[in-house]
Amino acid sequence: MEQLKSVLILGGSGQAGADTATLLRRWYPGLPLTIAGRDLARARRVADELDAADAVTIDLRRGDLGLPGGRSHSAVVAALRDSRLSGLRYAQDHGLPYLSISSGLIELAPEVIAGAQRATAAPILLASHCLAGLIVLAALDAAREFDRVETVRMAAVLDEQDAGGPAAIEDMERLMAISTAGLIRRDGVFTWVSGAAAEVEVACADGVVLPGQRVAIPDVPSVALATGALNVHFDLAAGETASRRRGEPASIEFRIDIEGTGASGTPLSTSRHLVHPGGQRPLTALGIVLGVERLLGLRGEPAAPGIHTPEALIDPTLATKRMAEIGTIPINT
């Protein structure tokens, strides 16, 4: 492999970061990795399981991240909440691609502004979508058969025992505290819904219905603007998934329903209902790795400087193929 510099994974000892490192190692055995965390012993345990990987401590209060001098990297992946944007600033200062996954829709504004102010510094991939953009990519893959997309309905069921670890729980609590309103696109207008209007029911694979909420998530504008659909929403429910009711481990389910017209102008609709028995961790890691591939040019040309979203860089058909390869299963409903 020509690329010899290490990918710096902030939060690399957490669940999302560790799974990302493992998948990167599987696909790119020669790509050096740096597992960065606040607990050096924990980071070393992750690094020791990977070839060509080292471990460092980080301090997100510092502009240099508290990293030892003389180090160089090929990209920065923030697999944690970078509330000070220290990782982003470090990437920009060193001209490195940057990927983040933990900002809420409102919280994306500082990242967008930071990227716009230094648009030529480095490529920035904002992947704070559900599963780091995989549901968006699955929706766009399903939309390929449409001549015109009118409505896209997305929903996910997250098992309450598959919260993704302490960092993910903290992220969810923070995002719910910021706003209980959901963002939807209705008749072409992006609008906020709250209270009873944001309360929904989400059906699991076995037909059991869970209480959920229409949420404010980047998936909504990403899908709406990429497809031109005038009506888009994303519903999220947390509870016991169908797999756990069968006595199996916690899984994650998501469903995409699309309505519009086909090439002949006749009405067309399609539904995709998918489940991963390993829960959200392997899919989130896949979404990150697909982004790293494109940022670094490991697949195709390296991404140009500027702000990107997953659907702007990653081929939807490739994403759905990879999802199946790592164990995502279609459900017939």
Structure in words:
The protein has helices at 15-27, 40-48, 86-93, 108-117, 134-142, 166-178, 219-227, 242-245, 280-296, 310-313, 316-325; strands at 6-10, 33-37, 53-57, 73-78, 98-100, 123-126, 148-159, 182-186, 189-193, 199-203, 209-214, 231-239, 252-261, 267-276, 306-308, 329-330. Helix content is 32%, strand content 29%. It is an alpha/beta fold and 333 residues long. It has eleven helices and 16 strands. The chain has a seven-stranded parallel sheet with strand order 3-2-1-4-5-6-15, with helices on both faces. A seven-stranded mixed sheet has the order 10-11-12-7-13-14-16. The protein folds into two domains: 6-130 and 283-315, 3-Layer(aba) Sandwich (Rossmann fold), CATH 3.40.50; 133-279 and 323-330, Dihydrodipicolinate Reductase, domain 2. This is Saccharopine dehydrogenase. InterPro entries: NAD(P)-bd_dom_sf.
Topology:
Layout: E1 6-10, H1 15-27, E2 33-37, H2 40-48, E3 53-57, E4 73-78, H3 86-93, E5 98-100, H4 108-117, E6 123-126, H5 134-142, E7 148-159, H6 166-178, E8 182-186, E9 189-193, E10 199-203, E11 209-214, H7 219-227, E12 231-239, H8 242-245, E13 252-261, E14 267-276, H9 280-296, E15 306-308, H10 310-313, H11 316-325, E16 329-330
Parallel strand pairs: 1-2, 1-4, 2-3, 4-5, 5-6, 6-15, 7-12
Antiparallel strand pairs: 7-13, 8-9, 10-11, 11-12, 13-14, 14-16
